[in-house]
């Protein structure tokens, strides 16, 4: 029997889903806040976590970040807002699937079973650990997520909490663009605006810290007016535009 943790502050929905999922053959535990969910997830072994975005105090994205720092349990996120950016942010942070409220419980069951089948296949193939790894690496850069430690070229790099969050998102999606909207929402906890360059300033500082040991290496590439990308072969990529950091990012 698969064991599922449901984290949602809607007690009525928790009762409904608990009854429905139990009838479908799952063992369910529920908690109504993010901090409690993180604690319970760490203390017991769950096969899957269902996580609501709109939680009080610690929201679903922050809760997911704490979960991903210590475990690779598959996560399905729920949201009542139905915004595309929420779905993108959740998936970029490591969620396995996303479902907008209101939904038919039968659809949730189908999503749960699909995710569990995929995880089983990945585990059998030995490919399931990379996406949710506690240690992220690219070239000579390594991040220990739980310990909040970053080494670059063999040296320890001291990062602020915002810089660490930005780098974690970029590494989890290395080789793919992470949008500015995602970085604003996760690293700064607010929506982006046309004239707010805060993320660009943080990225500029992060670049300088990472490139200090080995000049000429472009690790974080600007996708103009869209976002940033961590270059997978950055250890071999010449950063010919060292001054563009100031021109494009600040």
Structure explained in plain terms:
This protein is 41% helix and 20% strand. The protein has helices at residues 11-23, 34-43, 60-68, 84-92, 105-125, 161-172, 180-188, 198-211, 244-249, and strands at 3-7, 27-31, 48-52, 75-79, 97-100, 135-138, 141-144, 149-152, 155-157, 177-179, 220-223, 227-230. It starts with a strand and ends with a helix. It is α/β, with parallel strands linked by helices. Strand 6 (135-138) and strand 7 (141-144) form a beta hairpin. The model is unreliable at 235-250 (pLDDT under 50). It is built from nine helices and twelve strands. The relative contact order is 0.10. Helix 4 packs across helix 7 (180-188), helix 6 packs across helix 7 (180-188) and helix 6 crosses helix 8. The chain is globular and about 60 Å long. The strands form three sheets. The protein has a five-stranded parallel sheet with strand order 2-1-3-4-5, sandwiched between helices. Strands 6-7-8-9 form a four-stranded antiparallel sheet, with helices on one face. The longest helix has 21 residues, at 105-125. The chain folds into two domains: 3-125, Rossmann fold, CATH 3.40.50.2300; 135-249, Arc Repressor Mutant, subunit A (Orthogonal Bundle), CATH 1.10.10.10.
């Amino acid at each position: 029997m698969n064991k599922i943790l449901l984290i949602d502050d809607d007690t009525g929905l928790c009762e409904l889903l608990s009854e429905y999922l139990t009838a479908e053959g799952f063992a369910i535990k529920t908690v109504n806040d993010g901090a409690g969910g993180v604690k319970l997830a760490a203390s017991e072994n769950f096969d899957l976590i269902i996580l609501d975005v709109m939680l009080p105090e610690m929201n679903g994205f922050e809760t997911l970040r704490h979960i991903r720092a210590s475990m690779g349990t598959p996560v399905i996120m729920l949201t009542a807002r139905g915004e595309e950016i929420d779905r993108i942010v959740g998936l970029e942070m490591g969620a396995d699937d996303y479902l907008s409220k209101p939904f038919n419980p039968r659809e949730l069951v189908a999503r749960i079973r699909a995710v569990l089948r995929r995880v089983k296949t990945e585990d059998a193939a030995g490919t399931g650990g990379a996406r949710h790894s506690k240690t992220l690496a690219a070239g000579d850069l390594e991040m220990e997520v739980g310990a909040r430690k970053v080494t670059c070229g063999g040296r320890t790099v001291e990062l602020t909490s915002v810089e660490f969050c930005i780098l974690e998102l970029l590494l989890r999606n290395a080789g793919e663009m992470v949008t500015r909207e995602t970085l604003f929402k996760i690293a700064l906890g607010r929506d982006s605006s046309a004239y707010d360059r805060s993320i660009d300033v943080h990225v500029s500082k992060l670049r300088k810290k990472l490139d200090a040991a080995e000049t000429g290496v472009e690790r974080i590439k600007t996708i103009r007016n869209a976002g940033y990308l961590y270059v997978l072969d950055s250890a071999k990529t010449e950063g010919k535009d060292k001054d563009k950091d100031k021109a494009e990012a600040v």
